[in-house]
Design a protein that fits this description.
- The protein has eleven helices and twelve strands.
- α2 runs parallel beside α8 and α9 (about 295-315) runs parallel beside α11 (about 370-385).
- The two termini are about 40 Å apart.
- The chain has helices spanning about 30-40, 50-65, 80-90, 115-120, 140-150, 170-180, 200-205, 275-290, 295-315, 340-350, 370-385, and strands spanning about 15-20, 75-80, 100-105, 125-130, 155-160, 185-190, 210, 225-230, 330, 350-355, 355, 360-365.
- The strands form three sheets. The chain has a seven-stranded mixed sheet with strand order 2-8-7-6-5-3-4, with helices on both faces. Strands 9-12-11 form a three-stranded antiparallel sheet, with no helix packed on it. It has a two-stranded parallel ribbon with strand order 1-10.
- The protein has two domains: about 45-290, Aspartate Aminotransferase, domain 2 (3-Layer(aba) Sandwich); about 295-385, Aspartate Aminotransferase, domain 1, CATH 3.90.1150.10.
- The chain has about 375 residues and is an alpha/beta fold.
- The chain binds pyridoxal-5'-phosphate.
- The site of pyridoxal-5'-phosphate has 13 residues, from α3.
- Pyridoxal-5'-phosphate (PLP) binds near residues 110, 189, 191 and 212.
Length: about 375
């Protein structure tokens, strides 16, 4: 069944047009309630039990595993940021000087600096896959350039499922096939996709999938999440904390120090991963996202934005071909001589919230947005063109 507008469970003011979930998602009622209850619980530390440390976080891990179609919540861990999750990856990668790490052009900085540092450290090469110069069929051609660049020197490919500033969709199935052919690691930053675009570990088998929590997963800022595949099972985490070791549930025996970590990826969870307030909110958020279903979110956004996209193209703006981009987030390129400053002033006046990233106006959509929101945005663009 198709999703209907979910505006009623959000508290976005009537005069605000919020088209910026790619930056921060708003809360909906269940998240707000879970957060307030968790803050109130802070008054009663006497009620904190051993379960408080394990139950919500395990529920969160299990829900995220379900969302990404993994059978194994022991591969899902709580991390505070994407950069933290990627640092765990880099900590377990050794390179030869002939090795290459492939990233996409203008990738988010947290998914650039770490690879720059690692390749510098080993005298290896950071290869940046630039888009084709043409506008027509850009997404398809960009994917082809990337696929053609994966070869016996490729140690690792680190990229998003979609480009974070323009929504270009990358064909992870083909990229996984090619990386497997050359034994290269595939590390996915799902920050701008997981939750809103279907992702299946069963189908794509990434070596790691890392996602910020405060965008399409509706969590608070400071709550990211990661999946680490078997490559990382016996690796080195970037920090050592008590809760990731076996028997950490036995509070009276914590100084019977353990040399063993909990199984599989659990060694990579950040210290204090039980984060009592955040996890309650994140559980409420994920339950709803799973109920909505990413495929239905895409469909909702596609229908909500279709007329706007056509009208923008008719005005001479460039939006990537529909089958080569996501529908929850896409970039708009403006014609030459377009007055972006005039548009920004108008958007502020009309309380329309979007992002400007690189050469694009990044528009993002969710189930609280309506066609009317996009009509307001269209009018602002038309005004700036006058
Ligand atoms: C693609 C992408 N990755 C990662 C992040 C956040 O990275 P970090 O958690 O290191 O701040 C963002 C934030 O906008 C993003 O768009």
């Amino acid at each position: 069944m198709k999703l209907k507008s979910q505006k009623a469970i959000f508290k976005i003011p009537k005069d605000v047009v919020y088209l910026n979930t790619a930056s921060f998602s708003p809360a909906f009622n269940a998240i707000e309630e879970a957060g307030i209850q968790a803050v109130l619980d802070k008054n009663r530390p006497d009620l904190i039990t051993v379960d408080s440390f394990f139950k919500p976080i395990n529920e969160l891990r299990s829900l995220f595993a379900e969302l990404i179609e993994s059978d194994d919540m022991d591969r899902v861990v709580n991390i505070p940021s994407v950069s933290y999750g990627l640092a765990n990856v880099a900590n377990n990668v050794c390179l030869k000087s002939t090795d290459e790490i492939l990233i996409i052009d203008e990738q988010f900085p947290s998914n650039y600096y770490i690879w720059k540092k690692l390749t510098d450290q080993y005298g290896a090469r950071l290869k940046i896959i630039e888009p084709p110069k043409t506008k027509s069929n850009k997404g398809k051609k960009w994917n082809k350039i990337l696929l053609d660049s994966i070869n016996e020197n490729t140690a690792l490919v680190a990229m998003g499922h979609v480009h974070w500033s323009n929504g270009t969709l990358f064909d992870l199935k083909e990229i996984r096939r090619k990386t497997q052919e050359f034994n290269s690691l595939l590390i996915i930053d799902g920050s701008q996709s997981v939750g809103a675009l279907p992702f299946s570990v069963k189908e794509l088998a990434p070596d790691a999938l890392i996602a910020a929590g405060y965008k399409w997963l509706f969590g608070p800022y400071g709550s990211a999440i990661a999946y680490y595949g078997p490559y990382f099972d016996n690796g080195n985490p970037i920090e050592e904390n008590w809760i990731n070791r076996v028997n950490s549930e036995r509070f009276s025996e914590l100084t019977t120090y353990q040399s063993e970590y909990k199984p599989k990826a659990q060694r990579y969870s950040v210290g204090e991963s039980s984060s009592l307030i955040y996890n309650q909110m994140r559980v409420a958020a994920l339950q709803q996202v799973i109920e909505w279903q990413p495929q239905r979110i895409q469909e909702y956004c596609r229908e909500t934005t279709a007329t706007f996209v056509n009208q923008m193209r008719a005005l001479g703006c460039h939006i990537e071909q529909d089958d080569c981009r996501s529908h929850h987030m896409f970039g708009v390129g403006f014609p030459e001589n377009f007055d972006i400053e005039k548009l920004k002033i108008k958007l502020e006046k009309e309380k329309v919230n979007v992002s400007f990233r690189g050469a694009f106006m990044r528009v993002s959509c969710h189930v609280f947005n309506t066609k009317e929101d996009f009509e307001v945005l269209l009018e602002c663009v038309k005004y700036a063109m006058q």
